[in-house]
Amino acid sequence: MKIRKVIYVALGCIGLGLGAVGAVLPLLPAFPFLLLAAFCFAKSSQRLHDWFLATKLYKNNLESYVKGRGMTWKTKLRIMAIVTATMAVGFIMMERVPVGRIILAGVWVFHILYFIFGVKTLSPQGMQGACRVIKVGGMHCEDCAKKLECAFNETGHMTAQADWTRETITVHLREPLPNTSLIQIVNRAGYRAEAVWEMES
Question: Please, what are the domains in the chain?
Fold first, then answer.
């Protein structure tokens, strides 16, 4: 058991290190490595797991997903295809680094198995009606409305229409997201999310 714990800690640290690099370099995907770190730390050390959950690396890259309800098959396949293509490039470039290839191959297998069996699959029908209306403090003009719409639309996971006269923005989600993620987008744009309502679209 002790050896297994050491292996999990080692793999978690490797995933954390590669995830940190991937968060900076666009050619290396951060998501699967950070998932590996979260999984391994949860299996090996509660202290390391709690510490990892408190880091900005986790909050900025995994927290919104972890708090979500799942993904559709279309979303799963899109993510798996992007990560597979990216990791294939790294695999080819590591022709003279067999250890690097082994690590990449292991992470790729973990990534595929996790998304197939570990992530809840939502039906497209279950996505219908995913609509939120957010009361936004500080949105007082048309330029403010356009700025907020761009902040939501550029994520690729939703479309938004803002009404500055009512200080509200209506967000139609393409995949499940917690209200905390929507509030963070409003706050990062420089405004205040004062309330969030779930509506039928």
Answer: 2-122 (no CATH), 125-199 (3.30.70.100)
Q: What is the pLDDT of residues 110-123, one digit of tens each?
A: 878 877 877 767 65
Element holding 122 (H helix, E strand): strand 121-122
Maximum Cα interatomic distance, the chain, rounded to a whole number of Å? 62
Q: Are 86 and 27 in contact (CB under 8 A)?
A: yes
Helices 179-188, 142-153: axis angle to 10 degrees equals: 130
Q: Are 188 and 195 in contact (CB under 8 A)?
A: no
The pLDDT of residue 93 is above 60: yes
Of 91, 123, 122, 121, nearest in space to 109 by CA: 91
Other CB atoms within a 10 A radius of the CB of residue 62 amount to 20
Q: Which of 79, 66, 55, 39 is nearest to 177 (CA)?
A: 66
Q: pLDDT tens-digit profile of 62-72? A: 665 665 555 66
**Distance between CA atoms of 98 and 130, rounded to whole angstroms?**
46
Residue with tokens 């699967």: 32
The confidence score (pLDDT) of residue 170 equals: 92
CB atoms within 10 A of CB 200: 7
* Rg, Å, the chain Cα set: 19
Q: What pLDDT, on the 0 to 100 scale, is given for residue 70?
A: 58
